[in-house]
Amino acid sequence: MDERNDMDQPLTDELRELYRRFDEHALSPLWTQLADVMTDVPKSRAVPFLWRWADLLPLAERSGELVPVGRGGERRAIALANPGLDGRPFATPTIWAAIQYLGPHETAPEHRHSQNAFRFVVEGEGVWTVVNGDPVAMRRGDFLLTPGWNFHGHHNETDQPMAWIDGLDVPLSDYIDVGFFEFGTERVTDYSTPDISRAERLWAHPGLRPLSGLNRHVNSPIAAYRWEYTDRAVAAQLELEAEGHPATVEQGHAAIRYSNPTNGGDVMSTLRAEFHRLREGTQTPSRREVGSSVWQVFDGRGEIVVADNVWKVEKGDLVVVPSWEPWELRAETQLDLFRFSDAPVIERLNFERTFVEGRER
Amino acid sequence: MDERNDMDQPLTDELRELYRRFDEHALSPLWTQLADVMTDVPKSRAVPFLWRWADLLPLAERSGELVPVGRGGERRAIALANPGLDGRPFATPTIWAAIQYLGPHETAPEHRHSQNAFRFVVEGEGVWTVVNGDPVAMRRGDFLLTPGWNFHGHHNETDQPMAWIDGLDVPLSDYIDVGFFEFGTERVTDYSTPDISRAERLWAHPGLRPLSGLNRHVNSPIAAYRWEYTDRAVAAQLELEAEGHPATVEQGHAAIRYSNPTNGGDVMSTLRAEFHRLREGTQTPSRREVGSSVWQVFDGRGEIVVADNVWKVEKGDLVVVPSWEPWELRAETQLDLFRFSDAPVIERLNFERTFVEGRER
Amino acid sequence: MDERNDMDQPLTDELRELYRRFDEHALSPLWTQLADVMTDVPKSRAVPFLWRWADLLPLAERSGELVPVGRGGERRAIALANPGLDGRPFATPTIWAAIQYLGPHETAPEHRHSQNAFRFVVEGEGVWTVVNGDPVAMRRGDFLLTPGWNFHGHHNETDQPMAWIDGLDVPLSDYIDVGFFEFGTERVTDYSTPDISRAERLWAHPGLRPLSGLNRHVNSPIAAYRWEYTDRAVAAQLELEAEGHPATVEQGHAAIRYSNPTNGGDVMSTLRAEFHRLREGTQTPSRREVGSSVWQVFDGRGEIVVADNVWKVEKGDLVVVPSWEPWELRAETQLDLFRFSDAPVIERLNFERTFVEGRER
Amino acid sequence: MDERNDMDQPLTDELRELYRRFDEHALSPLWTQLADVMTDVPKSRAVPFLWRWADLLPLAERSGELVPVGRGGERRAIALANPGLDGRPFATPTIWAAIQYLGPHETAPEHRHSQNAFRFVVEGEGVWTVVNGDPVAMRRGDFLLTPGWNFHGHHNETDQPMAWIDGLDVPLSDYIDVGFFEFGTERVTDYSTPDISRAERLWAHPGLRPLSGLNRHVNSPIAAYRWEYTDRAVAAQLELEAEGHPATVEQGHAAIRYSNPTNGGDVMSTLRAEFHRLREGTQTPSRREVGSSVWQVFDGRGEIVVADNVWKVEKGDLVVVPSWEPWELRAETQLDLFRFSDAPVIERLNFERTFVEGRER
User: Fold this and answer.
1) Domain locations in chain D?
2) In the UniProt record, does the keyword Iron-sulfur occur (chains A, B, C, D) (predicted)?
3) What is the DSSP string of B316-359?
4) Strands of D162-168's sheet, edge to edge?
């Protein structure tokens, strides 16, 4: 029994009667449950877990055969349901992660909601996400934003299906009761298929802001972060390291954070996203962090270790790291990974802590 | 049935098999539960509720007779357990509120935790809260801070018991998994009983900062906001209004926000606290806000209306307003109220929305 | 000759001709004047200087006999004209400081300007500064604000004259060309004489903000920082130090910064103000800072050392410290000093550096 | 005579004696000079002025023949000396602008200073600026940063001379006394000639930040903003406008601001830089702004109007706009312009005002 709940106190009739009256008046004593609500270190109900792309994709395809997409269900999205979280469609207490699947020539209708959302494409192409009327192409390696309260739909212009992952702050917004939702049009508002979006043409230039866009931007105005730039950025870090210059997080470990060019912060108020590249053979030290995250392997093979789990992973595999669980990465080949987390929530509320094995911090 | 969950789709054997495989792989479809996780407007599981001081205080006193205070249970605190929240000791999904009771000459031992905490005193005096070794007197009308990770204990130096309310962000920190906890000494580290704390002597001067305290202060360094100043501030607003000058929130309604003098923001990263005074006869318009709050009547009589509930309230009564539930205040006599909420969380994550009846916003 | 201007180059006819053509085209070579415009350390043209209250006050009184106050001249203010600055009425390149004098029952008419201004009262009382229609009493030890673009006038309601000092950012605004100016009424708009202003009634409560004042405040809304609070704040620091607690800047040296309660920053965008109290016998270490400042002795006797000057000072004496000149304070008795500086300018532009003798920094 | 200096007061002997005593005590009355130091609107001593590239370049070339570059003079830079500013090498009260010239295989030695500096290249290539050991190639259209206190030198690796413009905050730092200066090596520390710098490889990716660079960056870490991106960004704005989407500042007028990707703000604390492209035939409305700026034509032909001056301009021509002087642009052909200004200074000190003819503001 936890020291902090142990009052060394027999449950007398008088005490039983007191507790009955507490119940009657919608009250609850601290002293019997302190250790449950105030733990020594964060102890998430969410558990470390691995979802294999080899399992997810066939189930998404089967859903494509059996379940239509359209108004009502809105999206053919299948969420990671962390086994520790009572069967709710939540990857962690704050993060929603799902595989979404759109068949040839299908449309997922437009809607908007307070919840912030992104897409990350691990394979395929041919779908456009239309954000407030701006068509955004989706291709392997791209990271796309649909920040809160922007209308958005998806449509597949090809004869091939396409699948990708969605990330949202749905569990957090559900818990803290902040969500609004509105339907938009049943079809998307623009079926054109440009290579890049208008938002990118205006905003995706390194260090350059349009003078017409100097007002406050809570979330990043860059609709899509293209693979070409991400790949180049992490490759450059490893090259600089090889040339003897500081550039990487640690030896053999390159990483970028997707950022809001209008303030240098995270892309959206509640979600952080990063891309990591490990040189073949690299092993990271063990880390613990306050807050939860999800990794998806983008390319290569290796191991992700979370607490006692040592998982061999490959393209598309998804791993959840609950708050304060130790994790490390091991790259068998060059290993590319996408990561997203609730770090902006943790940091804005000043709860951040980090522990890196072997380092003072 | 909610339009958004209605897929007009019979549950065939094939679909049943698909859903079984989802379960098997810890997956969950969006299309059957969209309306539950993404509601049109915030629909909190927490319900509007009233706790009467006349019920709370006798139960606290009875606890004083039956339950010791000390290491393990740590505090003789009895939490408001919102009937919508499964019996957990949570006033709202983000807020903990409790009545705490300390008998004559008792000590509640020192500990510290990541969770932010405050005390508000609706009656009585004679207890000192010792925060990192600084004794802070507690008296009627005072608002005291113990921000995250500060050691703190309480001791009662009189022959009378004392009760007050505690407010913390325990439910939020429990949900997002950010809490750390450490025991301190079994007794408080300083039993002296100064009128005001060292923190106040250094910091509680209007608009004056010590040159020795220019570093970053995430939370307010003012250990206690004394009743004398709060009373004077709201009184002045009503006087200014009576003299024809802008000063109040609206006709007959004065209010202050307790603030962090080092940045003008909320006293702590996760909790907002305010004090309101309504002139006799004042009725506020109906308001809805994203985020939850708790009111405690400090003085006077009136009504608090939340959704369909019209509650007559008096000194010490506590009312919970869940997110987006409409509320209004009606002052039968001059009515003084203390309020605390999760507004800093909502605003830092950019989810704020407000609706005031009869006003454009 | 400065190494950096020494090109070891004879001034040939060809070069002379080149320089003539530079002149003709409004051009100027860097190589002949680098050492003048880019010095090793800041070398201000302003010089350390002392103005004695015993000289200033009689001249102000004589001005009162000879010079009317009213529309046109606007103010009977006599500025400190730093001997290094070509006779211009500038205490330093950024700071204006003047003694202002108002005879019995005189009015200085209302006007407004972009320049930020304050008053500090070293002796006397009986004048009210009316800021945007809000009468603000002036008494010994008070520090009053009239931030940019607020209408303001002064009137003396007594049979005694009164003198005080004005501080403004006039030299800076003159140099960088930012000033706008408008006349207001010839008389002040409100001749009432309340003890404290409406702005103070709304804002001068420690850590409490009116809910009606949550919008952006670039400058402090506290119209006057009263002596009572300042005195109490520095006294408390010395007492805390005597009791063994950290509170002072350094042994025997208490100080507060006047601050904007809405953001914790300086009272105005361009001017910092502080109040210092040294215990009898205290000597501060020698300091150099980027940026210029002015000290005024409020009470007591001691020495202010600036570069090679050792000045014995007493009540009302004013000393200018140009940028990067070393300074120290020596308290013969308990020594109270008011200080103002251009530190917000220096810090906002990221030019701050400090050197304290005997300390790593 | 200005109303505000007109005291309607004869200069009596008594007054003359008073003024003599003012002089003797280093004092200066406000009432005789108010209108000079507090003008109705900003009235800069700097005048609107045009420097023609056709004049500048030959003089720079001639300097190359007559004046060596090296330790002491440090740079073969010829500064624009605004005719209103007493022959000092200042384009405006806050801005230094110069043409710098480096002959074949010459080196300008390394040094560092508090002053922020940039280079903009209107023609040519072949010089590398080495910033803290990182070689940064200079080519037509590039905008390069050397923020305060970074060591930097230049070297020309070709058989051709090269000229470009330097922009610095020297006049401001000279006036407010903030400058420090140190010599570095006589030669640059790295003579390698990479296409792009290490800083760009790490930082010049749209919206991507290296995880190794999350600390505070007061100034932009992007060493060079390449022409390729700038050109693409302004071209995209005009295309978007042509397609019917909001993108430009106003009809026919595209513009970007060079920004610090770590906070979205200006590239350096004291200097703003922008690039503008006007469609052929575009005329901008007349604008007045607080703060001074310099335009350089990058390509095309047109007119720059400042106050009463209508200047026909072409590639390389430089025009100074003092504070609050009205200006407009007229594009005879497509017109590309680089602009830099002291806007960050003005805005950080809260002195900004803008007036656009025909628009409410």
Assistant:
1) 49-213, 226-356
2) no
3) T-EEEE-TT--EEEEESS-EEEEEEESHHHHHHTT---EEETT-
4) C27-29, D77-80, D96-102, D162-168, D117-120, D143-146, D224-225
C211 at the B interface (CB within 8 A)?
yes
Above 60 in pLDDT, residue D361?
no
The C-alpha atoms of residue C335 and residue D1 are separated, in whole angstroms, by 47
In order, the DSSP letters of C30-68 are STTTHHHHS-SS---SS--EEE-HHHHHHHHHHHHHH--
CATH number of D49-213: 2.60.120.10
Structure tokens at C336: 């109270």
Nearest to C170 among D12, D38, D173 (CB): D38
Residue C353: Cβ within 10 Å count? 18
What ipTM, to 2 d.p.? 0.96
Residue B11 or residue B327, greater confidence: B327
Pairing of strands D293-299, A134-139: unpaired
DSSP result, B267-334 = SSSS-EEEEEEE-TT-BPPPEEESS-EEEEEEES-EEEEETTEEEEE-TT-EEEE-TT--EEEEESS-
Name beta bridge partners: A355: A288
Cβ contact B114:B149 at 8 Å? yes
CA distances from C214 to A3, A70, B255 (A): 45, 44, 11
> At B309, phi and psi to the nearest 5?
-90, 130
Q: Quick one: pLDDT at residue C5?
A: 47
Residue D25, SS3 per DSSP: coil
Question: For a pLDDT cut of 90, what percent of chain C falls above it?
Answer: 92
What kind of fold does domain A227-356 have according to CATH? Jelly Rolls (2.60.120)
Q: Which residues 133-162 on chain A approach chain B with CB closer than 8 angstroms?
A: 148
Residues in A closer than 8 angstroms to D255, CB to CB, are: 210-212
| Chain D residue with minimum CA distance to C346 | D178
* Ramachandran class of A296: left when φ > 0, alpha when ψ lies in -120 to 50, beta otherwise: beta
**How do C335-341 and C293-299 pair as beta strands?**
antiparallel
What distance lies between CA C129 and its chain's CA centroid? 18
Q: What is the dihedral of CA B56, B57, B62, B64, to 10 degrees?
A: 120
Of 2.60.40.3200, 2.60.120.10, 3.30.56.10, 2.30.30.90, the CATH number of C226-356 is 2.60.120.10
Taking an 8 Å cut-off on Cβ atoms, the answer to whether C178 and D323 are in contact is yes
Tell me if chain B has a CB within 8 Å of the CB of A291: yes
Cα end-to-end span (Å), chain B: 32
Q: Which member of C9, C43, C178 has the closest CB to residue D346? A: C178
Q: Which amino acid is at A50?
A: L
**Topology alike, domains A49-213 and A227-356:** yes
Residue whose C-alpha is closest to residue D240's, from A229, A203, A152: A203
At residue D8, the pLDDT reads 62
Lowest-pLDDT choice from B67-81, B313-327, C217-231? B67-81
Per the listing, tokens 């809105």 go with A74
Looking at the partner chain, which of D173, D345, D350 has a beta carbon nearest the beta carbon of C176?
D345
Kindly state whether C239 is in contact with chain B, defined as any CB-CB distance less than 8 angstroms: yes
Tokens representing C335?
Answer: 């020594």
Q: Which chains touch B (3 or more CB pairs under 8 A)?
A: A, C
Name the H helices within A110-203: 170-176, 198-203
Residue D283 is classified by DSSP as B
A237/D209 touch (CB, cutoff 8 Å), yes or no: no
Using an 8 Å CB-CB cutoff, list chain D residues near A241. none
pLDDT digits (tens, 9 = 90+) for D230-273: 999 999 999 999 999 999 999 999 999 999 999 999 999 999 99
Distance between CA atoms of residues A265 and A118, nearest Å = 16
